[in-house]
Amino acid sequence: MNFEVIPAIDLRGGQVVRLRQGDYAQETQYASAPSDLAARYAQAGARWLHVVDLDGARAGNLANLSVIEALVKAGMQVQAGGGVRADDDVRRLFDAGVSRVVVGSVAIREPERVVEWLNIYGEEGFTIALDTRRRENRWTLPSAGWTEDEARTLDELAPWYAARGARHLLCTDIERDGMLAGFNLELYRHLAQTVPQLAVQASGGVRSLDDIRAARDAGARGVILGRALLEQRFTLEDALAC
């Protein structure tokens, strides 16, 4: 399986933004229009684009669907989520041209529903997003835009999904998200050992090309690049060359 370098665009109010540690009060806005940024990423050679509807993640609806539909036209395969709660949300994203629907809060709160979607649309059509935070020696699973802690843990749900046919897992260490502190390699080594059948996408904290190589060596099958690209810490072309 290929190692994928996936640039990310986070949307709020139709604009490109980044949050620190998932905190909506710590938002940075960027001048680039989403469609222009996507076009640059496509020109650099990216095969995939990761899109997060932050408004949707917080409110529980697809608030930036028209923007996501426009981003699909940049020519990359798009995985997108944020606010996916119901069957209609999944259909609308696929109708918009999204290749993989990212399911987060619903994947934690209603896993049986997500397995139904896997069975209906196929396992390749979904990325299970189990974003995590280390608390009291447990990998907890905050949801609803990382604003609410759930009872289930990462070590409970990741194997559960792997046993039911899921193929793709996106896992962010929230404490590192947007902090440019490097990936939590311990987390990705742990996942590579416990759920080797899942293609894990590493996210949260990348700051250098060495971080990308380290995530690959730790067993991740892909990396999500957000703030580091927006702040030009390295080029996407160089990242893809990793």
Identify the notable features of this structure and list them briefly:
single chain; about 240 residues; alpha/beta; TIM Barrel; eight-stranded parallel beta barrel; three-stranded antiparallel beta sheet; His_biosynth; Aldolase_TIM
Describe this structure in words.
By secondary structure, the chain is of the alpha/beta class. The protein has a domain at 4-103 and 174-241: Alpha-Beta Barrel (TIM Barrel), CATH 3.20.20. The chain contains 11 helices and 13 strands. Strands 1-4-5-6-7-11-12-13 form an 8-stranded parallel barrel, surrounded by 6 helices. A hairpin with a 2-residue loop joins strand 1 and strand 2 (15-20). The longest helix has 11 residues, at 34-44. It is globular and about 40 Å long. The protein starts with a strand and ends with a helix. 48% of the residues are buried. The model has no long low-confidence stretch (mean pLDDT 92).
Name the overall outline: globular
Low-confidence stretches: none
Q: What value does the average pLDDT take?
A: 92
Number of helices in the DSSP assignment: 11
What is the CA-based Rg, rounded?
16 Å
The CATH homologous superfamily of the domain at 4-103 and 174-241 corresponds to Aldolase class I
Main sheet attributes: strand count, strand direction, barrel closure: 8 strands, parallel, barrel
**Count of DSSP strands:** 13
Strand line-up across the major sheet: 1-4-5-6-7-11-12-13
CATH architecture annotation name of the domain at 4-103 and 174-241: Alpha-Beta Barrel
What CATH calls the topology of the domain at 4-103 and 174-241 is TIM Barrel
Beta-strand content: 25-35%
Order of helices and strands, N to C? EEEHEHHEHEHHEEEEHEHEHEHH
> Helicity level, as a percent range?
25-40%
Helix-strand category: alpha/beta
CATH class of the domain at 4-103 and 174-241: Alpha Beta
Main location: cytoplasm
Active site: 10 (proton acceptor), 131 (proton donor)
InterPro entries: Aldolase_TIM, His_biosynth, HisA/PriA, HisA_bact_arch, Isoase_HisA-like, RibuloseP-bd_barrel
Subcellular location: Cytoplasm
